Amino acid sequence: MSKTCPPLPAMVIKLLGAALLSLGATVQAQAPAAKPARSAADILAQSPASDWRSPDPRDTLLMELQTARGPGQVLIELAPRFAPRHVANIRSLARAGYYDGLAVVRVQDNFVTQWGDPDADKPDKARPLGEAQARLPAEFSIAYKDLPISRLPDVDGWAPVSGFVDGFPVAAQPEADKAWLTHCYGMVGAGRGNAPDSSTGSSLYTVIGHAPRGLDLNITLVGRVIKGMELLASLPRGGGAMGFYVQAEQRSPIQRVRLLADMPDAERPRLQLLRTDSKTWLELLDARRHRSGWFVHSPAHIEVCSAGVPSRPAP
Amino acid sequence: MSKTCPPLPAMVIKLLGAALLSLGATVQAQAPAAKPARSAADILAQSPASDWRSPDPRDTLLMELQTARGPGQVLIELAPRFAPRHVANIRSLARAGYYDGLAVVRVQDNFVTQWGDPDADKPDKARPLGEAQARLPAEFSIAYKDLPISRLPDVDGWAPVSGFVDGFPVAAQPEADKAWLTHCYGMVGAGRGNAPDSSTGSSLYTVIGHAPRGLDLNITLVGRVIKGMELLASLPRGGGAMGFYVQAEQRSPIQRVRLLADMPDAERPRLQLLRTDSKTWLELLDARRHRSGWFVHSPAHIEVCSAGVPSRPAP
User: Fold this and answer.
1) Cβ atoms within 10 A of the Cβ of B136, count?
2) Strand, coil or helix: B294
3) Which residue of B has its CA nearest to A6?
4) Does the beta carbon of B182 lie under 8 angstroms from any beta carbon of chain A?
5) Chain B closest-CA separation from residue A198 CA (Å)
6) Nearest CA of chain A to the CA of B56: how many Å?
7) Chain A residues inside the 8 Å CB shell of B213
8) How far, in Å, CA of B74 to CA of B61, rounded?
9) Strand, helix or coil at A279?
10) Angle at CA B295, nearest 5°, toward B290 and B300?
11) Spatial separation of the C-alpha atoms in residues B222 and B219, rounded to whole Å
């Protein structure tokens, strides 16, 4: 992991779009010269502590994976405001150790990485859900009214409104009083079968490619990967239909999944996320719309899935 | 590679959005029941041979990589209509064996995989470009007038017009008579330094995450990966700034890069691409806008970067 986890400087530059598709080390070293007047790095460096938050330990999962490249950690922030029943179920499953020993079963290029019980559909072999609910209502959308959304002024082709709530990318249709989490890179959803209410949170997926926003309002999104996406996105693609692994040994085992709240305080990863209702966030979005330095053309536009919410190690 | 290359059925389902985020094998097996009335698979199966084309061998590169997971092949179709000078340079570099023995030097999660000469910026160690041009004009856009574009009716936030030309995703500003290749997943560009005209095609990158369309009109796109994206997208992310590898041994070596035209006919990979000016393509796009089966909600929308152009082994 540490080898593949970019340090904060890289994340900051990435926030800039990391547009320095440089020829090599020298130009890479010139990166500072290629940033806007007030760069994303400067905006972040000058941000007040109050613009940052620590994810709630009761809403944050730590998934420990074993991969052919070694062990890795994935942190997932759950979204109880949008999928309360699924989040409650996932908490219950994690506390019961349901996910421990399961595996990544599917990696489809430019689409999703999915994990869960490889035997979920074999009644005789499927792991029991224990005290978790075996049937949940679909949680595809919530009410838009009174939703504290940091709305983007930018045109979005998929929905009349887009923006951020609690750090999550959101789209909405105010006239229908509907809002929903949208399928941006790194978002986590609950796999379902053909019945809209057939997801339980026992099988989860994350988006590893271009946002498949056509899935919005069709499946329950439950959270977002806030650390470790580079691990889930770089697993070998599955050779079967829809990217499922054909041989069991190709699957990456899940060693365990815990809620941070259930871990000894000293063992909890310390991560902070920029508040998407903060002035710093609005300034960062504007820095992405209006480029300078390396850029000769400014898009004067961003989209809800092209702006990653920055994180940093807790000070 | 063969392990991670999805077979055509998987590609077809992927074209559908592969929205069956199923709980496992059984539901996966039910996939046919979850497709629209006339599914993408049916549309493709019933497509006339005349709706398919073979990429021009003079415009198609075969890159052979060595990775920790084994060897792999990447096919890149060049876009001479959009970047004639860069494409000519890349042909010249490939014919001179310039890329042979170079390496993937950078993989930044949700952004790009970049390859070239690790010593490009060390005058004493940089590999000479030979007969290729050391300086080229930037080729960021071309004229829109008379461009044979299959225009999308869907709203695009980044440009007034979007669509497809010669199988490539394109955006345009008709009132400025400008059109350009756009940074969708799998598009290939020529790395540059701070000077807009500092790209030569000696360092190339491909998009491995959500389309960074803010790069459009800032750097020269030269083509598209038509086979092997799952290889370039699943390499370990680099731990240095902007995803550059820190240790040389982390780089994946490029064994060789050849134009198909320079290969014995029998050795050329046989691949066909769906014509983006065909009726079949328009029907596929419509099948993505209007879903059924597994879907309970249809987006009634697509975007230029959410529609992958299908390929198939040549019959």
Assistant:
1) 21
2) coil
3) B239
4) no
5) 9
6) 26
7) 299, 306
8) 8
9) helix
10) 25
11) 10
- Planar angle of CA A119, A123, A128, nearest 5 degrees: 75
Model ipTM value: 0.90
CB pairs under 8 A between A and B: 313
Per-residue tokens: B261: 């035209």
For residues A62-71, one letter each, b for 16 or more C-beta atoms within 10 angstroms of the residue's C-beta and e for the rest, the string is: bbbbebebee
The continuous run of DSSP H or E covering A109 comes out as none
User: What distance in Å separates residue B309's CA from the closest CA in chain A?
Assistant: 13
Torsion of CA B184, B185, B189, B195, to 10 degrees: 60
pLDDT of residue B35: 46
Vertex A24, ends A23 and A27: CA angle to 5°?
Answer: 80
**Contact status of A249 with chain B (Cβ, < 8 Å):** no
**pTM for the structure as a whole:** 0.90
Which of B53, B72, B91 minimizes the C-alpha distance to B253?
B72
Q: Is A249 helix (H, G, I), strand (E, B) or coil?
A: helix
Domain coordinates in residue numbering, chain A: 57-265
Q: Least CA distance to B246: which residue of chain A? A: A3
Triad B142, B146, B148: Cα angle to 5°: 90
Q: Chain centroid to CA B262: how far?
A: 21
Structure tokens at A207: 């988006």
Alpha helices in A98-240 (DSSP H): 229-233
d(CA A165, CA A253): 32
Helix (H) and strand (E) counts in chain A? 6, 15
Q: Where are the beta strands (DSSP E) in B91-228?
A: 103-108, 112-116, 150-151, 161-165, 168-173, 178-181, 187-190, 204-207, 221-227
Q: Which residue has the tokens 């190339």?
A: B204
* Entry field: residues in chain A: 315
Tell me if the domain spanning A57-265 has CATH number 2.40.100.10. Answer: yes
Chain A residues touching residue B25 (CB < 8 angstroms): 121-122, 244
CB count, 10 Å around CB of A119? 15
Beta-bridge mates of residue A73: A64
* Distances, alpha carbon A151 to alpha carbons A158, A187, B210, in Å: 15, 19, 20
Hunting for tokens 């809403």 — which residue is that? A59
Binary contact (B218, A186; C-beta < 8 A): no
Chain B residues whose beta carbon lies within 8 Å of the beta carbon of residue A140: 296-297
**Residues B206, B217: Cα–Cα separation, whole Å:** 16
Express the helix, strand and coil content of chain A in percent, nearest 5 each: 25, 25, 50
Alpha-carbon distance of A74 to A254, in angstroms, equals 10
- In this structure, what are the phi and psi dihedrals at residue A80, rounded to the nearest 5 degrees? -60, -30
Q: Could you state, in chain order, the average pLDDT of each consecutive group of 10 residues for chain A (315 residues)?
A: 28 35 35 56 96 98 97 98 98 98 98 97 94 97 98 97 98 98 98 97 98 98 98 98 97 98 97 98 96 93 95 94
